Amino acid sequence: MLQPPRTLLFAFTLCVSLGFATEAQTQERSALWGQNGELWAPTSRLPDFSFAGYRRSEKQPPMVPQTAIVKDFGAGGDGETDDTHSFLKALAKVEKGAILVPEGRCKITQILTLAKRGVVLRGVGPTKSVLFCPESLTDIQPSWGATSGDKPTSNYSWSGGILRVR
């Protein structure tokens, strides 16, 4: 069996005993969360999404009948072509029902708002129908604020994202 050279073993022992930190150990911890959540409090700035979802995720959402397919409005779903306007057209035209997002990668570059009661977007599966948003929300629609410590922060932590439901 090969033995490591004594100088290498000594150097390793010295680094460990002197407390040289690894890269993972030197990463900054969240001032709001801490290392293991010890800084979180119900009154903190971190929201509690425990009850997110339709009816607190205690009931299945109703099955809305499909009334349109976003490809009928021009969406390509190839991940290269910007499909935003196809989604906007579908959301403007459909009055009620599900707009099917077929399998593919749809590139979205503007905020989409579902504002009509009873209109939903429905994909064919979590890894099959993908809305791809290559641009930062703060580039699409700047919304900056400051934390209580006057550090710049995106207001998107507290508001809608690329897909909004009103």
Structure explained in plain terms:
- The structure is a single chain.
- With 166 residues, the protein is of the alpha/beta class.
- It has a domain of 116 residues.
- It contains four helices and ten strands; from the N terminus they run ααββαβββββαβββ.
- A three-stranded parallel sheet has the order 1-3-6, with no helix packed on it. It has a three-stranded parallel sheet with strand order 2-4-7, with no helix packed on it. The chain has a two-stranded parallel sheet with strand order 5-10.
- The protein starts with 5 loop residues before the first helix and ends with a strand.
- The N terminus is likely disordered.
Summarize the helices and strands and which ones pair or pack:
Elements: H1 6-18, H2 23-26, E1 66-69, E2 78-82, H3 84-93, E3 97-101, E4 104-107, E5 112-114, E6 119-123, E7 129-132, H4 137-140, E8 144-146, E9 152-154, E10 163-165
Parallel strand pairs: 1-3, 2-4, 3-6, 4-7, 5-10
Antiparallel strand pairs: 8-9
Query: Could you say which structural class the secondary elements and strand pairing correspond to?
Result: alpha/beta
Count all strands and give the number: 10
In angstroms, what separates the terminal alpha carbons? 68 Å
What would the principal axes of the Cα set say about the shape? globular
| Element string (H = helix, E = strand) | HHEEHEEEEEHEEE
Strand line-up across the major sheet: 1-3-6
Radius of gyration, taken over Cα atoms and rounded to an integer in Å:
24 Å
Mean pLDDT: 80
Number of helices: 4
The percent range for helix content is 10-25%
Approximately what portion of the residues adopt beta-strand conformation?
15-25%
Characterize the largest beta sheet: strand count, sense, and whether it forms a barrel.
3 strands, parallel
